[in-house]
Amino acid sequence: MLTFAARRLILSIPTLLFISFVVFMLLQLAPGDPMAQVPLTVPPEVKEKMRQALGLGEPPLVQYWKWLVQVGWIEPKVFIDWLTRESWLLGWLPDTQLYNGELRVISWQTRSPVMDIVIQRIPQTLWVVGIAYLVAILVALPIGIYSAYRQYSVFDQAGTFVTMVGFSIPPFFTGPLLIVIFSVQLGWFPSIYDTTHVVNDWASFKVQLQQMIMPVMVLAFQITAQLSRYMRASTLDNLNQDYVRTARAKGLSEAVVVMSHVVRNSMIPVVTVIALGIPSIFGGAIITENVFKVNGIGQLLITALFANDLPMVMTLTFIFAVLIVMFNLIADVLYGVLDPRIRYD
């Protein structure tokens, strides 16, 4: 297993380089100009100097190489310095000083380091999207298992109807609908997510929960619909296998047959769906974050696209690619844990 993981990690390096190069070249061909938002009163010669200061006057391959060095070499040094500095304060590791003031990946829109902005936005996204994904998993798996075990029952048919609704209705409809019902009509929850809210006591924690309920409901509803259908289909397939009949013939209780045999094997294909969906947590839910004004990663990506902020879009896209490759590897490793028959020798 360790050899397989190491081999996959090595092969992921050229994969990520190819993805980043393709995305960079596609963004170069995209219409738009980062100088478009500069006021018309700015003279053309000043705009040209600003363009050169952003590095827009250089060939695309030179721009890509500079970005690659900044992301692959300079930003890790900044992160290691921050990590060891925080650890040194707690007495864990000695403090280091690897970063020597080299040029980092700078956002064209804000003129600030891209990774600093991303780190500021991640907590907001994790509060909403991360909790929604966790809630969806905890709800969807039992629903899928019980629907399969009680196939064609009232519960199964009701679950099928609800999941079809979850598949069919997009977040840009359910979000405003919940706002109209629970914010405008009932006044139970705030319609706008306050990203400046600080949780430091029980009262502030309750306020945080109140403003999280509606965006979490919108996201969890959609994710639950997807995962529960996968879990139901996988459980149904395993309930009809010979090993289940053998386990029942040996006198095992129905709970042991279902939970110890059927569920474990049924989780194998579902693990892929769950693992590949985790990067979307860090990517944020673009539509939901915009509906509820959550100042997260998804909204940051939309803002960067509209402003033609190439370094921000490139860095966010690269982060998503790294997460997808990493969780693909985690899913493959979990296959071997869930199914002893799978070997990677």
Automatic annotation (TrEMBL):
BP GO terms, sorted? transmembrane transport
Q: Which residues cross the membrane?
A: 9-30, 125-149, 161-189, 209-227, 268-292, 312-338
Cross-referenced PANTHER family: DIPEPTIDE TRANSPORT SYSTEM PERMEASE PROTEIN DPPB-RELATED (PTHR43163:SF6)
* ABC transmembrane type-1 domain ranges (all copies): 122-331
- In Swiss-Prot or TrEMBL terms, this protein is called ABC transporter permease
Q: Which SUPFAM superfamilies does the record associate with it? A: MetI-like
Q: Does the keyword Ribonucleoprotein apply?
A: no
Native organism is Thetidibacter halocola
Cellular component terms per the entry's GO annotation:
plasma membrane
Q: Which protein family is named in the record?
A: Belongs to the binding-protein-dependent transport system permease family.
Q: Where in the cell is it found?
A: Cell membrane
Membrane-topology annotation of the record:
Multi-pass membrane protein
Location (main, coarse): membrane
Gene3D superfamilies in the record = MetI-like (1.10.3720.10)
PROSITE patterns in the cross-refs? ABC_TM1
Keywords assigned by UniProt, alphabetized: Cell membrane, Membrane, Transmembrane, Transmembrane helix, Transport
